[in-house]
Amino acid sequence: MSVFSVGVDSGTQSTKVVIVDADSGSVVARGQAPHVMIAGLSGGASEQDPAVWIEAFRIALREALRKSAFPPERIVALGVSGQQHGFVPVDRQGRVIRPAKLWNDTSTISETEAIIQALGGPRAFLDKAGLGLAVGFTASKILWLKKNEPDHFRRLATVLLPHNYLNFFLTGIAHMEYGDASGTGLMDVRARTWRAEAVAAVDADLASKLPALSHPSDPVGFLKDGIAGEFGLGRVLVSSGGGDNMMGAIGTGNVSPGLCTVSLGTSGTIYSYFREPFFDSEGEIAAFCDSTGGWLPLLCTMNVTNTTELWKAVLGIDNDGRDERAAQSPPGADGLVFLPFVDGERVPVLPEATAVFFGLNRANFNAPGMTRAVMEGTILNLGYGFERLRALGLRPREIRATGGAAKSAFWLRLVADIFQGPVITLEEPEAAAFGAALQAIWNWRKAKGENIPISELTGALVKTSGPPVEPDPKNGAVYRAVQAKFNSIWRALKPEFSTGRRASA
């Protein structure tokens, strides 16, 4: 008799739930519920009320259970994927003190700089922590709370990340695992321990407010009786879970060397599994831990579908209309280059940057040309970091694409042509939720005494979909030149961006 695992992906825009057959890996039911942002914030702030995540979880799980054709008591495990880098401050009674500051909150530039300088500057921070401190990481958000909301900071008893908070709601246990915790900026990612100097740079008492770090093969605990009863569930193991990129790696089978995942969502990420700690001497590639026990060097850009959603609204079109218009313009958009820094940018490090159209002329000053340039710009931005990963030793035999934009054949073609490699899609498109379900199966089987390598599990359950999208050599030649132009433009405008003034071209 089959048993089942639930995978939960609590992202920026929504919560998605999948129910997975633990033997076949088949997704047998799904649910989804939207999130809302807190409106009217200023100064780069981006926040959500964690209560929104809990309500969305309840709605999405109920929907998935309604669609399933088996008794809910056959669900044995549950795993949570969450948006990385968020900060959920919790008091001694387990109550959320204020809304969570999210991964794309750039209101903490001065706090980020203060932490870096406390450790001796960018190079010293990199040497001590094993990765650079980006503005979006959790550490600076904690210092922001201390400086700007001291009454709230005095109530702070426990620091949680978004997926940890959902696990806390489900089990009553405050817990962190290596993968998501490595995105706080408070760890030595090579030793997989809290870095005392980084922690003390935020606050002398912060160490007591950080949960102990656990190996991701160790579960958090079991679903609380009240929550299990609410959904008609039995005894359900809750796995360690992880950040959305760590879970996306599991969900795409990226748990052994040689694979590379490109995730195209609100933000864009490229990551690959390494058995040993990875180090970028320039700090552009985040040398995260993964959520299986290895490392996951990762490039993150902050602007993919957030940018195209704005452009679609300008033209009043949907995704099909976007792709149709873009296809009417040739590769390279007749010389038009778009820098997609709508929300600033993490890589390249331009937190105060703005978006730029460069090279408007009579051939491209139209809807097709500008639409293509916007879409190309998001991948060219990732292309800069992809070349950095290659320079540091990444040799991918496969590029696996996931995320909402991976459903677009046009976007996949851009990835193949700009990266000059075959791009493979997967049978299950919701890689983070699927990965959370697979990690939960892994934890559950380990708890039963089955020490199966997770690579063996994903090798059996993660399935590719259709033939790869092969790169066009002719387009590759065009995009090599466009990539060089893209890199040249943002470097030339970097002084303008660093002042916070709007650049134009």
Helix count from the secondary structure assignment: 17
Radius of gyration: 22 Å
Shape: globular
CATH architecture of the domain at 4-246: 2-Layer Sandwich
Task: Return the CATH class of the domain at 4-246.
Answer: Alpha Beta
Q: CATH H level of the domain at 4-246: which superfamily?
A: ATPase, nucleotide binding domain
Spatial separation of the terminal alpha carbons? 64 Å
Helix content: 25-40%
Summarize the structure.
The protein is an alpha/beta fold and 505 residues long. It has 17 helices and 24 strands.
What report would you give on this structure?
- This protein is α/β, with parallel strands linked by helices and 505 residues long.
- Among the domains are: 243 residues, Nucleotidyltransferase, domain 5 (2-Layer Sandwich); 109 residues, Nucleotidyltransferase, domain 5 (2-Layer Sandwich).
- The strands form seven sheets. Strands 1, 2, 3, 5, 13, 14 and 15 form a seven-stranded mixed β-sheet that branches. It has a seven-stranded mixed β-sheet with strand order 18-19-17-16-22-23-24, with helices on both faces. Strands 4-7 form a two-stranded antiparallel ribbon.
- Helix 2 packs across helix 8 and helix 12 crosses helix 13.
- The C terminus is likely disordered.
Secondary structure layout:
Blueprint: E1 4-10, E2 14-21, E3 27-34, E4 47-48, H1 50-67, E5 75-82, E6 88-90, E7 100-101, H2 109-118, H3 122-129, H4 138-148, H5 150-155, E8 158-160, H6 162-171, E9 176-177, H7 178-181, E10 187-188, E11 193-194, H8 196-202, E12 213-214, E13 221-222, H9 225-230, E14 237-238, E15 242-243, H10 244-251, E16 259-264, E17 268-271, E18 286-289, E19 295-301, H11 305-315, H12 319-327, E20 337-339, E21 356-358, H13 367-391, E22 398-402, H14 409-419, E23 423-426, H15 431-447, H16 454-461, E24 464-469, H17 473-498
Parallel strand pairs: 1-5, 5-14, 5-15, 9-12, 16-22, 22-23
Antiparallel strand pairs: 1-2, 2-3, 4-7, 6-8, 10-11, 13-14, 16-17, 17-19, 18-19, 20-21, 23-24
